[in-house]
């Protein structure tokens, strides 16, 4: 008589009983069974239980939903408490909650493989797929490694939040240390090469503190990726787009090749103007742009250069910052402006708890992560933002960006937990930006945010004003594209080992040169860690989402303009106030992640990822730049134009 060791039937519990619930496909265990006899396996052999049914699968995912609600709410409460008050204790609490969640997702994803042989209905099949992708930083099997990973992760994010840019010549002098907002302000406003250089360098130097931790973190996170059957974390991140990781890379490179000519024109125009301002010698002979001269710490968007680059000086210049400052606009008032745009489309006002629980300004009494973010902390319309708002145009736009996340949360918070996210992460990043494309002079005038602008005639505004305005938008959204791409190009190489730990900074600058066309203003060696000076690297936030969102947002805008009945050139549209556009958007947001993103895109009347929308939008500017650049032999990141 052989011994029946494992017969658990209909097992749906996780974690506590998971090791007793393994199931192996029938072919494997039944191969050893005699016909007509019960199946037995030895203790050393694989466990066996009856093949699961669709009811088992549904019960399993119901349970997962409840478990995830408990774990994600706990994790996000801990994370909110941590990021709005960075202390050793809140770091530890956040790390514990992250580690518990990661452990669960690993077990649950493995357990869900019991249903591999079933033809699951689409909703369950999608949940199964999303469960495996649910941890951005996947958990290693080994508990000690898992804890260490979460601790290292929390400590890097915390260090970034607490970082100060100190004077390299006097690093101990706290009076000479600046917050990131102060560095941003210097880079946005100073046009003194040396002042800009000092500010740029002082912030970049903060990255070095996380270099060793980052290497360790990559090793541990890759163990987690292996546990889930991925080659590395990069492959896991590239798997969230309803196509194979290889197809995704092909798509991204196709999109980049389509928009790159527009970027190259902008780069050439900007470099020429900068050379006129700073001189040939300071600009160098390589054709790239010194990275500290673009008005932003990472040169990821160049809007503060607008006054220097304005094609037609004075033609309807829109100095929103000046007006916000003059009006002494408070952070709350800034957020109210953003909410107003959404309610104009027929969205609900933000819940009262949003105003009670959000963090709108840098507190004086504690350390926080100032980098802007949006939350639904308890996954039940508990919307919040955390941001250190200043009265400036950048922040005005960022508020719309953040509220885009909040309204996405709001539209899908009744979905199952695994569907409570964007159609893909690029969708989530693109919503608020889509609305911000409709912030026209006429709208700003309505808000009382147009100072002394002359000649505001909205759709029929003069051609010069159109070009000015387009340049300003391009400095934000076209300038961003290569940066949006390169962070994860770099991380993919680091995760795969193609870039070894001792070459991380060199590889970073190779990509910044070749994709973005910027040059470090001083030598940056391997004693530095410049990626560590960008929030999303120590913060472990994938970045390809922003590249995609900068393509999608123009498609969303085109779709909502269509819904609003706009006729005429794309860049002249504003769907502000259109309930038809609002309804279209709401319906798409309400899908959450329940359908492949291509279906959500099709629901808007758009097909796949399509760069024609951004190219159409900027057609007038492109023609202008081509003329302005004619005869210039600008070196572009990939050669000569
Ligand atoms: O991180 C953000 C948002 C929060 S999701 C403020 N963004 C990227 C960045 O700042 O680097 C928005 C644009 C790109
Ligand atoms: Zn965002």
Which characteristics define this entry?
641 residues, mainly alpha, two-stranded parallel ribbon, two-stranded antiparallel ribbon, 26 helices, 6 strands, disordered N terminus, binds L-captopril, binds zinc ion
What does this structure look like?
Helix content is 54%, strand content 2%. The protein has helices at residues 26-30, 54-83, 88-111, 122-132, 143-162, 180-189, 193-204, 211-227, 233-238, 245-278, 280-283, 306-309, 320-326, 331-344, 352-357, 393-412, 425-436, 441-447, 463-477, 480-496, 504-516, 544-563, 579-590, 597-603, 612-617, 619-629; strands at 289-290, 373-376, 383-386, 518-519, 635-636, 639-640. It contains 26 helices and 6 strands. Helix 2 (54-83) packs antiparallel against helix 3 (88-111) and helix 5 packs antiparallel against helix 8. A hairpin with a 2-residue loop joins strand 5 (635-636) and strand 6. The radius of gyration is 26 Å and the shape is globular. Mean pLDDT is 91; it is low at 1-46. With 641 residues, the chain is an all-alpha fold. The relative contact order is 0.11. Among the domains are: 1-135, no CATH class; 320-474 and 544-629. A two-stranded parallel ribbon has the order 1-4. Strands 2-3 form a two-stranded antiparallel ribbon. The structure holds L-captopril and zinc ion. Zinc ion binds next to helix 16.
């Amino acid at each position: 008589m052989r011994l029946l060791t494992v017969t658990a039937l209909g097992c749906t519990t996780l974690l506590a009983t998971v090791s007793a619930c393994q199931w192996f496909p029938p072919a494997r265990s039944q191969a050893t069974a005699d016909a007509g006899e019960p199946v037995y396996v030895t203790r050393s052999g694989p466990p066996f239980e009856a093949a699961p049914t669709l009811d088992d699968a549904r019960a399993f995912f119901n349970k997962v939903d409840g478990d995830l609600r408990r774990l994600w709410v706990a994790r996000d409460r801990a994370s909110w408490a941590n990021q709005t008050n960075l202390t050793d204790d809140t770091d530890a609490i956040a790390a514990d909650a992250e580690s518990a969640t990661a452990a669960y997702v690993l077990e649950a994803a493995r357990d869900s493989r019991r249903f591999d042989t079933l033809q699951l209905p689409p909703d369950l099949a999608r949940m199964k797929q999303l469960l495996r992708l649910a941890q951005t930083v996947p958990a290693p099997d080994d508990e000690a490694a898992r804890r260490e990973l979460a601790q290292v992760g929390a400590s890097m994010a915390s260090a970034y939040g607490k970082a100060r840019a100190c004077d390299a010549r006097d690093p101990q002098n706290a009076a000479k240390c600046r917050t990131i907002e102060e560095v941003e302000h210097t880079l946005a406003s100073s046009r003194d090469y040396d002042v800009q250089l000092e500010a740029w360098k002082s912030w970049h130097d903060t990255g070095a503190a996380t270099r060793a931790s980052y290497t360790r973190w990559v090793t541990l996170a890759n163990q987690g990726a292996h546990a889930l059957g991925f080659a590395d974390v990069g492959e896991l991140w590239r798997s969230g787009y309803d196509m194979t990781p290889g197809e995704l890379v092909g798509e991204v490179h196709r999109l980049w090749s389509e928009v790159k000519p527009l970027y190259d024109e902008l780069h050439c125009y900007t470099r020429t103007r900068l050379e006129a301002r700073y001189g040939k010698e300071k600009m160098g002979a390589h054709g790239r742009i010194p990275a500290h001269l673009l008005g932003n710490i990472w040169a990821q968007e160049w809007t503060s250069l607008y006054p220097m680059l304005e094609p037609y000086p004075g033609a309807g210049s829109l100095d929103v910052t000046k007006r916000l400052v003059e009006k002494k606009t408070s952070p709350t008032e800034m957020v109210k402006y953003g909410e107003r745009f959404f309610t104009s489309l027929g969205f609900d006002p933000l819940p009262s708890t949003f105003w009670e629980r959000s963090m709108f300004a840098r507190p004086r009494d504690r350390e926080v992560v100032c980098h802007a973010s949006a939350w639904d902390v308890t996954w039940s319309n508990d919307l919040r933002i955390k941001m250190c708002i200043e009265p400036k145009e950048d922040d005005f736009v960022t508020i719309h960006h953040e509220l885009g996340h909040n309204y996405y949360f709001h539209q899908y918070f009744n979905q199952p937990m695994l569907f409570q996210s964007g159609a893909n992460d690029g969708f989530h990043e693109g919503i608020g930006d889509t609305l911000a494309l409709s912030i026209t002079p006429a709208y700003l005038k309505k808000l009382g945010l147009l100072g002394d602008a002359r000649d505001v005639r909205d759709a029929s505004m003069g051609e010069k004003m159109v070009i000015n305005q387009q340049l300003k938008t391009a400095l934000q959204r076209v300038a961003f594209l290569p940066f949006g791409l390169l962070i994860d190009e770099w991380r993919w190489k680091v995760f795969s080992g193609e870039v070894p730990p001792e070459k991380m900074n060199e590889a970073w600058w190779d990509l910044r040169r070749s994709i973005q066309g910027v040059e470090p203003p001083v030598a940056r060696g391997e004693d530095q860690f410049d990626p560590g000076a960008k929030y999303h690297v120590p913060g472990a936030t994938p970045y390809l989402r922003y590249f995609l969102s900068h393509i999608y947002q123009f498609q969303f805008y085109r779709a909502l303009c269509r819904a609003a009945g706009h006729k005429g050139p794309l860049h002249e549209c504003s769907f502000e106030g259109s309930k038809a556009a609002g309804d279209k958007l709401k319906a798409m947001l309400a899908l959450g992640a329940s359908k492949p993103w291509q279906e959500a895109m099709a629901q808007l009347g758009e097909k796949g990822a399509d760069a024609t929308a951004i190219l159409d939008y900027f057609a007038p500017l492109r023609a202008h730049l081509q003329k302005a650049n004619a005869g210039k032999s600008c070196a572009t990141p990939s050669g000569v134009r």
